[in-house]
Amino acid sequence: MATLEVKDLHVEVKEEKDQTREILKGVNLTMKTGEIHAIMGPNGTGKSTLAQTIMGNSAYHVTQGDILLNGDSILGMPVDERARKGLFLGMQYPAEIKGVTNAEFLRAAINARRPEDDQISVMAFLKELDKNLELLDMSKEMTERYLNEGFSGGEKKRNEILQLLMIKPSFALLDEIDSGLDIDALQVVSKGVNSMRGDDFGSLIITHYQRLLNYIVPDVVHVMMDGQIVKSGDADLAKKLEKEGYAGLRDELGLHVNLVDDNR
Amino acid sequence: MISAVQDYEAIKTAVKTAADAHGEPDWFVQRRLDAVDAMQELALPEVKRYDFHRWPLMDNTDLNFRKSDTSLANDLPRSKGQIRFVQVGQTTVAVNVPTELSKQGVILTDIFSAFRDYPELTQKYFMTKVTKFNENKLTAYQQAFLNSGVFLYVPKGVEIKQPIEVYLIQDSTVKQAMVSHVLIIADEGSQFSFIQHLNTKGDVDNAAHCMVEVMSQPDSHVHFSSVDELGKNTYSFLHRRAHLSENARFDWAVGIVNEQNTLGDITSELVGEGSHSESKVIAVTTGKQSNGINNRVVNIGKHTTANISQRGVLLEKSELIFNGIGNIIHGASGANAEQENRVLMMSDQAHGDANPILLIDENDVIAGHAASVGQVDENQMYYLMSRGIDKELAQRLVIRGFLGPVLEEIPLPEVRQEMIDVIERKIEDGQHFKQSNE
Fold it and tell me: What's the pTM value of the predicted model, to 2 decimals?
């Protein structure tokens, strides 16, 4: 069993004119493999920042607190090392890279976490690839295309999940993996994530909408507002939010948080 | 360097003796002597924002003919019946032209045999029409001291499906400049692709002058690619030019991956109405090397189309200047010339520039340009590394992504793959050098 702990995490970003802005204001979160956690919350509240900071995006600066993977701090580790230790971030806006095929990229990613003298064989790779393509209802042709190049929004999201299935991380942070998906694509993506469920896999799913959580039923739901987790509960919490909105919860908790991200 | 007049007289005598002993036809010996004369007056060619005046390009003024060790060509990929020409130094190692092509009149032979056996073609086209010998000091040097090369003639209407592969290997096991010439005549309506590979064996300091002249007759369709991998002790001048007649199509795909300083001059002259040229160049520089590359298209005929696309990658302390020159001559109405020049800086100690230079003397044209000098895309790096790929491999993949738009338009998959392999090998060397110095 692996654990991922976020302790009193404070994160700021640089803005213009050397100004900084604090986005995370003391986040605490513990998750284990075998669990699916969801983070919900209004726009601009720090959900993506949390995912990016865990992955190690250099745009986000940790000013206080720690992130521990299996008890060891990963704050000093570069992104690639964190990934090889078992973290995965399904991105909202995956980069496009012309000239590098999807298949080649997938092999490089798989081989990156294997020793030099034990790289995956072509046969084993293709077998795994075919299996996952079928699960995600993707054509083989997608893997010969350049990485995300000219992919539609839905194709990109599927491709993120394909990578998840091929790389098999311990923890997957999925950042708005449902945005821009129609209902069919949403089902396919959910099927992919659900197929990963098991004792060796944990996931932190970031979403605005409860809809995704009908397909990927979480064990724990956290609500984030203004850089902090303000409430945690089970799957019913998401349903309640869907009904009452974030404002209802805010008022119930007596928080003074502005919910319109345009006015932040 | 040669300076005084008496030096020139002595050189002429020596050149004549060597050329006669080499059995060259009189007309060519005379051209050599004319070129030595011309050298005295001519200046070096001009490359905007680039200085190469102190390079040792013309130190060697001996005309020598010697046999090279043909085993230097032993590590070439095994021939599987390709149309192929291999030359090591001045020694032709292999020529393979299928009989049916020879029967159709296709000629592929070394340049000196061509001077003797096909003077009606070589005398007419060697440095007379596509490039004139007296354009500058380097072109004159080329004609005066020519010591190797290849001649290709593809007759009217002949279509060759297989690419023609030419390997020119500089023999730097001895002190001897490589002064090599590729003369290609694509007769009316002919169609073929030509792949040139430049390499160096040995590490003696030598210059390499590698000239290509292509005469594209009306309605011909030619694709020229070159993978340039000259060695670390070779200063090179790569002069390549095509002359396009009516409705000819001629494309360049050039990968300049030499290890030492290189002056590149690649030109398409669109003389005939309706002709079309795509000029694609990739360059990678590492260490302290410096490359200055002119990529020039000249629209002369009406309704001509000429596009330039160049991408360069700089590592370590290297320098790379790309000049994209679009020249539209008065009268070339309906001409179309677009260019894109981009360089990617992988090091803050490198110096790169991408200069679009438009010289337009006609109103009824479409011309445009884009240029950029950029850093590696951090977003792409982050994405790749977030999948566990280490920084060096991620950089190489991002570089390939940057070069992708040029690479993917190379029509021959084997050339594209070779180009990718050569480029990545060089980048990897540059990355390791950087690490060991950190």
Answer: 0.83
